Amino acid sequence: MKKVVVKMMLSLCALLFLLPIMLTVVHSFGVQSVDEGNFRLTSLVPSGFSLVGYYDLLIEHFYVLRNFWNSVFYAGSITCLNIAVSVPAAYAFSQARFKGKELLFFFYIMLMMMPLQVTLLPNYIGLRDMKLLDTPLAIVLPSVFAPFSVFLLTQYMKGLEQSYVEAALLETKSVFRIMLQMIVPQLRTCILAVFVFVFAEYWNMVEQADIYLRRETLKPLSGLLAIGEGLTTSEVLAGSVIFMIPIVILYLYFHDSLEVGLESMKL
Amino acid sequence: MKEKKVTQRKFAVILVLSMVMMLFAGCAGEKKKKEEETLLVPEDTLLGYTYSEVYTPYQLSSCDVKVEIVQPEDSELMVTKLLAGDSDYDFMMLSTDSALAADILRTGAYYSLNDVPEAAGLLDRYHDYIKEAATAENGDIWMIPCGVNVSFVLYREDVCEEYGLDFDGMTYTEFLEQVEALPKNGEHTFFTPYGLMTADITSKFEQVYGYEDMSQQETELLRSYMEKMRAYDVPFNEGKWWLLSSEKRPEHLSDASMKNIAFELERSDNMSLSVSLDYFRIGGFRATKLPDLEEGVVCPSGVRVDFIVINPKSDKLELTLQYVSQLCEKLQKDTTTAIRYMSRGEDFSNNVLREDIYRLISEGEVYSLYPYDVVGAELMAYREGKQEFDVMLEEIQRNIKMFQEE
Amino acid sequence: MKTKRAADFIFAVFFTVMLLLTMFAEDLYRLTLPKVAVEEVTRRAFAAEMTGKDGAVYETWRTVPAIPTEALLGDYGDMVYAVNETENGLILVEYIVSTGEESEGYIEITGGILTGTLAVIGSDREIYPGQQVIITGWDESVALHTARERGEDISGYVQEMRKRLLTDIVCVVGVIPVTVVAVLLCNRFCKGRWRFLKVPALIVWCILVCLFLRATILLPGEWIPEKLIDWEGWKTNRESFQL
Amino acid sequence: MKRYLLKCRLLLIPSLAGLALFYVLPYVRVIYYSLIENQFSRRFVGLQNYVKVFQNEYFRLALKNSLLLIATAVPVLVVTAFLLSLLLLKMKGYWKLLRIAFIFPMLVPTASVVVVWRTLFDGSESVWPVYLLFIYKNIGLLIILLSAAFSTLEGEVYEAARLDGAYGFALHRKITLPLISPTLLFTILIGVVYSFKVFRESYLYFGTSYPPDHSYTLQYYMNNHFFKLNYQNLASAAVMTSLIVAVIVVVGVRLQKKFTV
Fold first, then answer.
1. Does the complex come out with an ipTM higher than 0.90?
2. Which residue ranges form the domains of chain C, and what is each CATH number?
3. pLDDT higher than threshold 80 for residue D232
C-alpha cells in the first residue's frame, strides 16, 4: 500500500515539474500565443497550431543555425577539456599528501563560489591583454579551468579505499595508467554525471558570450536566445525547444549508465 | 567496455563536425587592418544617433585625420570598455541626457582638454549655461559640445489665427482646452504625439517639484494631465487620431501635406535644426516653448547637448588632440550648422522660425534624464494601462530613491 | 538498454535534421522571397521637332532617361518601385518621379529617379517598400501575377504552370521507391562487422536526396517548377487554378 | 609508494596553472579594485570603500535578502533533492523514467522558463516565485549528483543492514546519511553557489533593475553599480560576499568532519 502512495505522490511531483516544459513546447507551436509586450503567454491553452515560430527562427533567420553549431562546439570542447583537466587534479587531491592540500582545496571552493558577474571585468581585461578577445578561445579557455568539476570529482574520489591503489602499484609505476585503469572505471557514473552537468552549464551560458565575443558569427545560440537579442518571443520559445534536445540526448546516455551503476545497489 | 566506446565515438563525431563548422566561422570573421592615422569612435545605437550623421560634413572638408565608426552593440559593452580602460578607441559621442554622461563626469573617465587652447576659445563662444555644463567642478574642460536639441511646439501662424489658437506662454490646461475646442475632422491636421508630451510633463514635474516631496495638490495636477494624455495617446498606425483630418500623417512629409499642418509638438534633433527640417523651407511656421505646468511656474525649456569626450587611455592621444583642436577651430568659425544656435550673439532675422528656436535655446537649460528603468518603464506601464496612477507614482519615487542612495 | 536505443535514434534524427537545415535553410528562405522582374532606367531616344534658322521644322531625336509605362504605380501614377543593393540583399525602394512625354510603351522621366537604377516592372505578389526581393526576370509566377493584375487572359500561363507542377510531383514521388531500394541494399551489406556503417550511410543518403530535390524543386530555374514548396506563391496562385 | 605520491602532485599542475590565470588573477584584481578610490584616478584608499558600502542601507537590504535566500531556499532544495533521489532509487522498470521529469528543468533555457513563470505567478507580491524558480532550476542537478553518489555505495552494506532488520527511514538515517555526508555537504555548497546564479532568472522575471524590496539581492546591487561606473562598490561588495561564503564553507566542512564515521 505504501508503495502505491509513494508512486502516486512521485508522479504528481513529476507532473508539476514537467508543466513548464510542456507549456514551452506546446506554446512554441501556438499562434500568437505570446504577449510580446510584457513577455508573457497570453493564455495557458494555446490557440491554433502553426510552425511560424520555427519558420521564423530556422528559415527567416537562417544564420541562427551557425550559432547552434557554435554552441555545440563550445559546450563540447569545454566539457571534454574540463574533464580532461579536472580528473587528474581531483585524483591528485584525493591521493597525494602534501602540506597545503587542505588549504589549497579550500581555496578551490572559495574561487568556485565567486559569482561570474564579479570576475567578468577582470577576465575581460586579462583576455584583452592576451589578445584573445572576440575569438572562440575567449569563451573556451576560462571555462576549461573552472574549479567546480575538480571539487565535485574530489568529493566522489574521497570514497575510494586505498586498497585499490596498493594493488595497482604492484604492477605499474606510471600514475596515469593507475588512474585510467583502476580509478576511472570505478567512478564512471560520477564522471558522466559531472560531464552532463558541465555540458548543461556551458550550453546555457549567456554572460560570457555577451561580453567576450562581438562578432555575431562566433556567438553561441544561448547568447541569442536571451532576451533583447532581436528575436521575437515566439522564436525564443521555438529556439528553447530545439535547444533542449541535445542535452536531453546527453542525459538519456547518462541515464543508462546511471541505471547500470545503481544496479549494484540492489536497494 | 564496448558500449562505452560507442558513445565516445558518437561524441567524437559531433565534436569533429562542429569543429569543421567552427573553422568555417573562425576564418569567416573579417580581419580589420589597423591603419595608423584613423581614430576609432564607438557608436552606441542606444544613445541616439551617430557621430557620422552629425560630423561627416566636417570630416570631408577640413580635418585631415580620418575617423572610423566602431560598433559596440550596447551600453553594457560601452561600460565594460570604459571600466576596463580599453585603449582601442579614441573618443566617444554622447548626449547630456544619458546617465552614462553624468557617470563619466563624476568618476573622471575623461581626458581634460585644458591644454587645448582652441577648446577654451570654442567654449567662450557658447551660451554660458552650455559652457558651465562643459567644465567640471575642478575647472577641467571635460567635453566639447557639438550638437544641441530642444523640444518645442511648432505651429502655422495663419491656420492658428483662423482657429483662434494662441500658443505663447500657455499652460497645459489652456493648451488642452484649445485642442479640444478644435473641429473634429476639419481639413487641417493637428498632429500631437501625446506620448512625447507625457514624458515632457513628468520631466517638468521632476524639474519644478521633484518627485520626493510632491504634495497632494501637485499629485492631483500631475494625475489630471496624465489622464488626459492617456486618453489622446493613440499609437500612430491605428489612425484613430480624432484630431486629425481624414488622411493620416504620410510616412514621408511630401510638400502637399506639410502645408495643412496646424500645429505639431516637434522634438527637433540636431540634424534637423541645420539640414533637413522641411518646415524651414516651406515657411509660415512659428515655434514656441512647451506649455508650462501652472500659471505662475515658468521653467526654461530643456536643452539636450551632444558632446565628444576623449578616452584618457587611448593609444593615439596626440593624434586625437590634434584632431580635436582642428575641430574646435573649425567649429569656432562655423556659420552653417547647429553651432550657431549654441553660440551667443547670433542673429536669425532672415527666418522667423529659426529665430524662435534660437530664442528657446538661448533661454534654455541643460537637462538630464534618469535611466529608463527608473522612470521611463513605470511611465510606459501606466500609459499602457497596466498600472494604477498611485502605484506608478510610488514606484517612481521608490526607484529614484534607490537610484540615488544605492 | 531501451533508453540507449531511444537516445541513439533521437541523436541521429536531430543532428541529421540540423545538418540538412544548415545546408538548405538559406535556399528555402530565398525561395519564399517575392520575385520581381526589373529593367534598368536607361536613356532612350524620343522624337522631337526642332525649328531651324529658316523657320522650317526638323525631325530630330533627344535622348532622355525613360522607363516602361507599366512601371508607374500608385494612385497619382507618380510612384516607381526600384531595387536597391544593400549588404543584406536587395531591398525594395519607392521613388516619387515626375514624368514627361510617353512613346512606344516608354515614358520620359524628368526627375526623381537616376539612370542606372533597376525599376521593377513585374512581381509575383503584392510588394511593399522595405521588403527583401530576388530578381528572377520574367519567370512564370511573375508573368502570371502581372497578367492577372492587368486583367489579361491568363489561361496560357495556367496550362504551363500545371505542366510544371506535374513534373514536380513526379520528382518527389520518384524519390520514394529509390530510397526503399537504397535502404534494402544498405541492410544487406552493412552486416556484422560493418554494422556501425548503417547510421552514417543513412545520413549520407538523406543528404543526397535533399541535394537532388534542391536541384529539381527548390532552385528557381528555367524548367524547374518550384510551386510545390513556395507556400506564398502557392496560396496566391491557387484561386487561378481552381484546384 | 613515496615516488607515486610525488608524481600525483604533478597531476595538479595543469589545473592549477589555468586556475591561477583565469580565476586567481581576476580575484586579485577585484581585491585591488576594491582598495582604490576610482577606476581612473587609481588612488589607493584602503578600506574606505568597504566602510562606504557597508553603511549603505541598500547593501544591507541586499545582503539580508541574499542570506534569507540561502537560509530558506537551499535547505528546502537539498532536502527535496535527497528525498526525491532516494524515492527514485526504489522505483523499478518504467517508473525509473520519472527521474527524467526532475532532470528536465535543468536543461530548459532561462528565457522560456521565465516566460512560463511570468504567466503562472504574474504580479504576486511575495518572494516565493523566485525561490520556486531557484528550486525548480537546480533540483535536477542535485538529483544527478546524489544519484551518482548513491551508485558508489556498495550493495553489501545494505545487505548486512537488512539482515539486522533495519528498514525505511531508520536504515537511511543510520547508514545512508553518514556514508554520503561528503556528498551532502557539497550539494549544500552547490546550492549556495547557485543561489548567486539565480540573478539572471530573477532579473528577467522582474524585467527591471529595481525589483520589489523583498527580492533585491546582492547581484542587483552589483549590477546597478556596474552600470553606474563605480566598480569599487561592486568589488568591495563582492569581496565581502566571498568572505561570508568562506565562513559558510568552513562551518560546513567542520560539521561534515563531525558527522562522518
1. no
2. 2-32+157-241 (no CATH), 35-138 (2.40.420.20)
3. yes
